[in-house]
Amino acid sequence: MFEALIAGAQQAFREGMQLPYPILLLHGSKDPVTSAAATKHFYEALRSEDKSLVLVPDALHETHNDICREWVIRQITGWLEARMGAATKEITGGGPGGPGGIQ
Hints:
mainly alpha, 103 residues, 3 helices, 2 strands, two-stranded parallel ribbon
């Protein structure tokens, strides 16, 4: 199982570098399971021009289940809303009620 985990991580690192999509990475600064430095290295190597890395102060491995979970969820929803708002305007040609928007 360990070898499969390592092989999967290596594949994700190799192939992830090529993805041009927006990406948000969150990593607890006190994560005892995975390396924040490795996440930073992965972030720096990403091809995407729309990439964000948030090192969550004092958080452990599961930032969304840590004491700072509400802050983390606000970061995630804010990041998503910023990108979804732009995509919605492109698709509809405006906001609700505007040209091509929701009536």
